[in-house]
Amino acid sequence: MRAADYLKYIATGVALTLPLAGPVAAQGLFSPVIEVNGAAVTGYELDQRARLLSAFNTPGDTAELARTQLVEERLKLQQLETAGMQLTDEGLETAMAEFATRANLSLDQFVAQLGQQGIARETLRDYVLATVSWRDSIRRRYNDRVQVSDAEIDAALGQGDRGEALELLLSEIIIAAPPPRAAAAMARAEQISRLTSTAAFEAEARQVSALASREAGGRLDWLPITNYPAGLRALLRSLAPGEVTPPIPIPNGVALFQLRDIRETAVPPATITSVDYATFAIAGGTSPEALAEAARISAVTDTCDDLYGVAKGLPAERLTRQDLAPAQIPQDIALRLAGLDANESTIGVSGDVLQLVMLCGRTTSAGAGADREAVANQLRARQLNGYADALLAELRASATITQP
């Protein structure tokens, strides 16, 4: 069926699918309630789409979602008509049958079940036609632009435990707490843990945090939850945006995290089996001289291997490099490593010693056995969805949408 034929169908033919009590009912039910560049959306279509979404157990306000979907479908079909795209009747029947198999039913069985809920076959047909036609159009239009590199696949595979497909947007504070100051540090941490304002938390981070992130108010970028020690993940997942963890004691310090946002990842991450990291000890704690030395070392090192040149001639204990399973890493070090990419560094305090902590790399269980092609396909689909969203936003911005 051509898009142009479909537009005529929804404007005139759909009225034949429901018997009416009389002309007045017909006029009210099939009168336009929205017009999109002159193409009508009727009250009947809105009701049918809302019923269909409810049958699919779609979360949220199905009436409002139905309105949004039908407006967008008018825009999509108008674009398809302009592009000369079409879906044959045979192709549409095949697509509807494939859709029904998701419920382990034949098309006739699926249509019968929908009919028991007052949903016409034509309503399913409309939904599948717009969805499949738009998908195929986007693939043809943008497929040549989609490029997925091996590095992107590696990054997607290397984000963590496949059972923990979450990313967190956190802010962090670690308060140095050597024994003479442990009680005072814990009291301050208790006060911070009761904050719900991100601005207030950031102000505290700038004042008391011993981490380099204090300059940004403790704000971190999106990170996989599996970057954090396993024992903390349930606590981090339990936070609502704005909430702060209770004080988390670590050696010679206390840590706090505030959740700013949380999201599911498009590609479940692979399991981290080991973490390669280095620590470089600098005497002087948080003195200006020690901080300046840490900044100097960070500036002249691009990789963990560069630290060996810095440590040449120094006592061996100044530089330590280890490759450990996540559970074996001390929690204070693990918390600092969580926010780092490979060859990035941060600082921490252990007693009277300033530590430069550098992540050398994470090893995952993905390896050669991972389904790289499946991951690549998911990444391609994400890029295509981005192009589709941008095109739809452009169509909506230039459209005339009225409610008669």
Description:
The protein is of the alpha+beta class. 47% of the residues lie in helices and 19% in strands. It is built from 15 helices and 11 strands. Strands 4-3-6-5 form a 4-stranded antiparallel sheet. Strands 8-7-10-9 form a 4-stranded antiparallel sheet. The protein has a 3-stranded antiparallel sheet with strand order 2-1-11. A hairpin with a 2-residue loop joins β9 and β10. α1 crosses α4 (62-83), α3 (43-55) packs across α4 and α7 packs across α15 (372-398). Mean pLDDT is 83; it is low at 1-27 and 159-163.
In short:
The chain is α+β, with helices and mostly antiparallel strands and 404 residues long. It is 47% helix and 19% strand.
**Kindly state the mean pLDDT as a whole number?**
83
Order of helices and strands: HHEEHHHHHHEHHEHEEEHHEHEEHE
Biggest pleated sheet? 4 strands, antiparallel
Distance between the termini: 29 Å
How many individual helices?
15
Estimate the global geometry from the Cα principal axes: elongated
Q: What are the segments in which pLDDT stays under 50 over at least 5 consecutive residues?
A: 1-27, 159-163
State which percent range the strand residues make up: 15-25%
Order of the strands making up the biggest sheet: 4-3-6-5
Q: Over all CA atoms, what is the radius of gyration?
A: 29 Å
By secondary-structure content and strand pairing, the structural class works out as alpha+beta
Percent helix, as a range, is 40-55%
Number of strands: 11
Oligomeric state of shown chains? single chain
